[in-house]
Design goal:
The protein is α+β, with helices and mostly antiparallel strands. Helices cover about 60% and strands about 15% of the residues. It has helices at about 1-15, 15-20, 25-60, 65-70, 75-100, 100-115, 120-125, 220-225, 235-245, 250-280, 290-315, 325-345; strands at about 130-135, 140-150, 155-165, 170-180, 185-195, 205-215. The chain contains twelve helices and six strands. The protein is elongated. Strands 1-2-3-4-5-6 form a six-stranded antiparallel β-sheet, with helices on one face.
Length: about 350
């Protein structure tokens, strides 16, 4: 609750000028942060669990009760069993909430943002190019765009996959770059492949140096319809990746695979973080100011885990790591650190 309150206070204070400029009603702000609250709880759950476990065991340690437990013949794993079961239950709840509730809350929050607020990301879009833009479009098309410039409405390395009513690929459009003319999209060095509808027909490939295409989406639509991975659960994201694995847009698909594995690995991070903190909390010896010691350990461990995880995901999206390794490298590294600490101290 403290973490959630702090997050809400900091976020509302940093966006206060935007709320005032847009004269956002208090009712809208309440709905926005109410939709944001589940995400905040999920994001802070690992650190909250770690602090809870460290508080409990350092308090036992301060009263020499850990010495009694160990002198009774209980191993580290026996003593730590309640904390590990606690972290497993919380991880399961986090997984369930992520799958069933977070996508709908994210969609609601996003809708409130688009209708009532000016966010920092909107300002950034006006200055910087957007990399790896992926979204569903009209006419049953999927778009993969390597780079989109919101200032000039120019795109680079675009792949468009068109499907028929039975979700079979009917066309594939690949272009080196394109530009919005004000009325339509003009593509340059464009290849259009039309796939046969029946076994007797042949695949047709046409090459154009310049080509005006019948694409209904405007540059504004490109920004509004961009894929939001946080609004998809694991099964939806897996279906999305499987369905369009043959599109040829390797960079976008690689990013989606990293996000897919991260959704699975994220809840396990709660168990791993608690496992790392337990050896520190169970070291015998009277601790003074155990509350501050526990809080400091929790913040340090949580910060290191977050930084390592962010680096791993960045390396995965940069194609330096395989997607599964990018998502699971940090949990595996910290699990190894925890096991080595347990073996050396217990």
């Amino acid at each position: 609750m403290i973490f959630c309150l702090l997050f809400l206070l900091i976020d509302s204070a940093s966006n206060l000028d935007e709320f005032i400029d847009r004269k956002t009603p208090m009712a809208i702000l309440f709905q926005y942060y109410l939709a944001y609250l589940p995400t905040i709880i999920i994001q802070t759950s690992s650190l909250a669990c770690l602090i809870a476990v460290l508080f409990a065991f350092t308090d036992l340690n301060a009263h020499n009760e850990i010495i009694v437990l160990r002198a009774s013949g209980l191993s580290f794993w026996k003593i730590a069993k309640p904390a590990l079961w606690f972290s497993c239950i919380v991880a399961a709840l986090v997984f369930m909430v992520n799958e069933q509730y977070i996508p709908s809350f994210e969609e609601k929050k996003r809708a409130i943002e688009n209708e009532n607020m000016i966010l920092e990301i909107d300002r950034a879009r006006q200055k910087a190019k957007i990399k790896g833009l992926t979204f569903y479009g009209l006419k049953n098309r999927l778009y993969f765009i390597d780079s989109f410039d919101p200032n000039t409405y120019e795109i680079e390395n675009i792949t468009i996959i068109g499907y028929d009513g039975q979700q079979n690929i009917k066309e594939k459009i690949v272009a080196l770059n394109g530009k919005w003319t004000g009325l339509a999209w003009k593509f340059f060095r464009c290849h259009i492949t039309t796939f046969p509808k029946s076994a007797g027909e042949k695949t047709k490939i046409k090459v154009y140096q310049e080509k005006l295409l019948d694409i209904k989406e405007t540059p504004t639509d490109f920004l509004k319809q961009r894929l939001n991975v946080s609004s998809m659960n694991i099964s939806q994201l897996r279906s999305y990746i499987t369905r369009f694995a043959s599109s040829g847009a390797k960079r976008a698909l690689n990013n989606l695979r990293v996000d897919f594995h991260q959704k699975i690995a994220f809840p396990f991070g709660i168990i791993v973080i608690v496992l790392v903190g337990l050896p520190l909390a169970l070291m015998t010896g009277r601790r003074r100011a155990q509350t501050f010691v526990s809080l400091g350990l929790a913040i340090t461990i949580g910060f290191l885990y977050y930084v390592c995880n962010a680096v791993g995901l960045a390396l995965g999206k940069g194609a330096f790591f395989p997607p599964i390794l990018a998502a699971w490298s940090t949990p595996l590294i910290f699990t190894g650190i925890a096991i080595s600490m347990i073996k050396s101290k217990f």
